[in-house]
């Protein structure tokens, strides 16, 4: 083989290697490309060291500009995702809905307390919100997100608002059975008592009242015998019905903030004529008001 032929073969080999590297790079980009399809979808992802099933919905008639992280009630995540279609279409928002097992201490109460004992912070279920939001941002390239939950999911978000710091623009707590009451005298998970050292506790309570929380209530959610209504002594201390509990929690929080001259970023939105229905709560114009920054 002449020197010229060897040089040509070397060039060809270098070209093939270059083209192969380009193809591999493109294939890698394709495999890692964010994929949340239009319409309904589902993915299994790893968040905080655990595998989660994430149900999604992407509107097809617009270019989404925000994320709606949805936390379901006992009706199940698939059902709740469907309930959120109308709201997502109005907002042009992508729905991100993780599936939880609705075990009260694990989900509704955020994993803060188990069998009467405050758990180490690393075990709190509320901690999944930040990696979930980060995953959604990476998948979509959209930074802005809101949290919304109904019933059991709203109980979870009440614990998120009280015990977890994140960058949500608004946290909408709709028709929960219980709240984190704005008090250090009420023990967690129904208040903030017993979780933080005395030197930190008041600051955490102040931060809770400064969170961008909306308490969103169906005015007809007044059934004292509702099947899923928590009737424990701690829950009954908040009120007899979901409407009463929401009003009391909001009013006490507002009064405490005014008394202490603390920032107060909560909002109360009431929906006349609607009871414990996620579909009606999400599709009403009041839902847009609840999510307003």
TrEMBL record:
SUPFAM superfamilies the UniProt entry points to: alpha/beta-Hydrolases (SSF53474)
Gene3D superfamilies the UniProt entry points to: alpha/beta hydrolase
Stretch forming the signal peptide: 1-32
Domain AB hydrolase-1: 68-219
InterPro entries: AB_hydrolase_1 (IPR000073), AB_hydrolase_fold (IPR029058)
Keywords, ordered alphabetically: Signal
Protein name: AB hydrolase-1 domain-containing protein
Organism, as annotated: Pseudorhodoplanes sinuspersici
């Amino acid at each position: 083989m002449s020197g010229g032929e060897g040089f040509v073969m070397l060039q060809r080999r270098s070209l093939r290697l270059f083209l192969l590297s380009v193809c591999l790079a493109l294939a890698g980009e394709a495999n890692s490309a964010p994929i949340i399809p239009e319409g309904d979808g589902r993915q299994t992802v790893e968040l905080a060291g655990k595998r989660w099933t994430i149900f999604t919905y992407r509107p097809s008639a617009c270019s989404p500009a925000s994320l709606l992280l949805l936390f379901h009630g006992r009706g199940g995540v698939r059902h709740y995702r469907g309930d959120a279609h109308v709201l997502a279409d109005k907002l042009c928002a992508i729905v991100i809905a993780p599936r939880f097992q609705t075990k009260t201490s694990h989900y509704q109460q955020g994993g803060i307390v188990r069998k009467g004992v405050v758990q180490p912070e690393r075990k709190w279920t509320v901690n999944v919100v930040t990696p979930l939001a980060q995953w959604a941002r990476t998948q979509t390239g959209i930074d802005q997100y809101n949290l919304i939950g109904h019933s059991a999911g709203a109980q979870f978000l009440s614990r998120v608002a009280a015990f977890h710091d994140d960058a949500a623009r608004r946290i909408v707590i709709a028709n929960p059975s219980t709240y984190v009451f704005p008090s250090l005298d009420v023990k967690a998970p129904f208040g903030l008592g017993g979780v933080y050292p005395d030197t930190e506790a008041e600051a955490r309570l102040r931060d809770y009242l400064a969170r961008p929380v909306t308490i969103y209530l169906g005015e007809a959610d007044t059934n004292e015998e509702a099947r899923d209504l928590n009737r424990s002594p701690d829950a009954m201390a908040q009120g007899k019905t979901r409407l009463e509990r929401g009003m009391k929690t909001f009013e006490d929080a507002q009064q405490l903030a005014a008394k202490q001259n603390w920032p107060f970023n909560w909002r109360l939105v009431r929906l006349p004529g609607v009871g414990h229905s996620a579909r009606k709560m999400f599709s009403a114009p009041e839902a847009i008001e609840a999510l307003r920054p």
